[in-house]
Specification:
Bacterial Protein-export protein SecB, alpha+beta, 42% helix
Length: 166
């Protein structure tokens, strides 16, 4: 029986597949609304980084994952620059249970895309005439877990509201 269980687990793992088909920039935006005046002012930057992921099924077991990163730098109340990059990938993912699949698409894939986003934003900022900007690493497992908690809280809130109506 132990052999059967080992074989079964081995077969399940053999059927699991994760393949990167393509990684590409879907959209790039760089704005310097207060240039050239911003270059003459004291440089005391305040960085705000927003992250967003989206998953789009393309075919059976084929998904587009889009990681959008928006970096906004202000000095005092003026926007120095805004850089936004949508980095995307097409992934073949199959043989995983739903929970594992959701984690792959919601955490693992964005984690693979992030270094590409970091490089593009760094180059945009440099070409825009600003000091180097290197985005810090992101713990996408923690971001994904937070997303799941928010979704569960929303679901509980919706259920509570529905119960109150009855």
């Amino acid at each position: 029986m132990a052999n059967e269980q080992a074989n079964s687990n081995g077969e399940d793992q053999a059927q699991q597949q994760f393949v990167i088909q393509k990684i590409f920039c879907k959209d790039i935006s760089f704005e310097t609304p207060n240039s050239p005046q911003i270059f003459t002012e004291k440089w005391e930057p305040e960085l705000k980084v927003d992250l967003h992921t989206a998953v789009n099924p393309l075919a059976d077991n084929v998904f587009e994952v889009v990681l959008t990163v928006t970096a906004t730098v202000k000095t005092e109340d003026k926007t120095a620059f805004l850089a936004e990059v949508q980095q995307a990938g097409i992934f073949n993912v199959s043989g995983f249970e739903k929970e594992q699949m959701d984690h792959m698409l919601g955490s693992y894939c964005p984690n693979l895309l992030f270094p590409y986003v970091r490089e593009v934003i760094s180059e945009l900022v440099n070409k825009g005439g600003f000091p180097q900007l290197i985005l810090q690493p992101v713990n996408f497992d923690a971001v994904y877990a937070q997303h799941l908690q928010q979704r569960q809280a929303q679901k509980n809130s919706d259920e509570s509201g529905a119960d109150a109506v009855h």
